[in-house]
């Protein structure tokens, strides 16, 4: 029996704008799952990501707020300087705990907490980036029975993050951005 996916988490760093621009605007208006996104952004200034993608996407796009219920068909971006966590009651939690791998928000933190909340009903995607953030979190998703997807390193602006994710999760589905987009539209 296959488990119906209930949520998507995405992590990206260097080259994120280009990679996310290939995926998020392509999601159809009827896309039923929430999409939670962590991008490494400078902590000392406002992020324009939600604003930028709101103009491009068919789905509602928001910067996540503490204690906000997670709604299907909505894209949530982590705010600068806060970890984005998913609580087991499927609400968002923001934390100013220590950076992980020099990053806050951390992809690992989002993926690990989402794996606890959604288990096998989670799809986790690691995109372009120049460090190892996301690899440990992706492993937690796999261990919880979720689906691991990694951008083909050769197609990434920065290949370190996808390469680290594949090393830690050799069973991950490695795909081009176009294939990731198609996959999401079909699940």
From TrEMBL:
<feature type="active site">
    <location>
        <position position="40"/>
    </location>
</feature>
<dbReference type="Pfam" id="PF01339">
    <property type="entry name" value="CheB_methylest"/>
</dbReference>
<keyword id="KW-0378">Hydrolase</keyword>
<dbReference type="GO" id="GO:0005737">
    <property type="term" value="C:cytoplasm"/>
</dbReference>
<dbReference type="GO" id="GO:0006935">
    <property type="term" value="P:chemotaxis"/>
</dbReference>
<protein>
    <recommendedName>
        <fullName>protein-glutamate methylesterase</fullName>
        <ecNumber>3.1.1.61</ecNumber>
    </recommendedName>
</protein>
<dbReference type="InterPro" id="IPR035909">
    <property type="entry name" value="CheB_C"/>
</dbReference>
<dbReference type="GO" id="GO:0000156">
    <property type="term" value="F:phosphorelay response regulator activity"/>
</dbReference>
<feature type="active site">
    <location>
        <position position="13"/>
    </location>
</feature>
<keyword id="KW-0145">Chemotaxis</keyword>
<feature type="active site">
    <location>
        <position position="133"/>
    </location>
</feature>
<dbReference type="GO" id="GO:0008984">
    <property type="term" value="F:protein-glutamate methylesterase activity"/>
</dbReference>
<feature type="domain" description="CheB-type methylesterase">
    <location>
        <begin position="1"/>
        <end position="187"/>
    </location>
</feature>
<dbReference type="InterPro" id="IPR000673">
    <property type="entry name" value="Sig_transdc_resp-reg_Me-estase"/>
</dbReference>
């Amino acid at each position: 029996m296959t488990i119906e996916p209930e949520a998507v988490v995405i992590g990206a760093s260097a080259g994120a704008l280009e990679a996310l621009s290939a995926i998020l605007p392509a999601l159809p208006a009827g896309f039923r799952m929430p999409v939670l996104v962590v991008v490494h952004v400078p902590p000392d200034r406002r992020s324009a990501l939600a604003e930028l993608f709101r103009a491009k996407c068919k789905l509602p796009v928001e910067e996540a707020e503490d204690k906000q219920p997670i709604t299907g068909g909505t894209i949530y971006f982590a705010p600068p300087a806060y970890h984005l966590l998913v609580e087991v009651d499927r609400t968002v939690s923001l934390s100013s705990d220590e950076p992980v791998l020099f990053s806050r928000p951390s992809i690992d933190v989002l993926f690990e907490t989402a794996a606890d909340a959604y288990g096998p009903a989670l799809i986790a995607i690691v995109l372009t980036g120049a460090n190892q953030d996301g690899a440990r979190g992706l492993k937690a998703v796999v261990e919880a029975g979720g689906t691991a997807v990694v951008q083909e390193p050769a197609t990434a602006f920065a290949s370190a993050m996808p390469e680290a994710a594949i090393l830690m999760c050799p069973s991950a589905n490695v795909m081009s951005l176009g294939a990731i987009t198609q996959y999401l539209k079909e699940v």
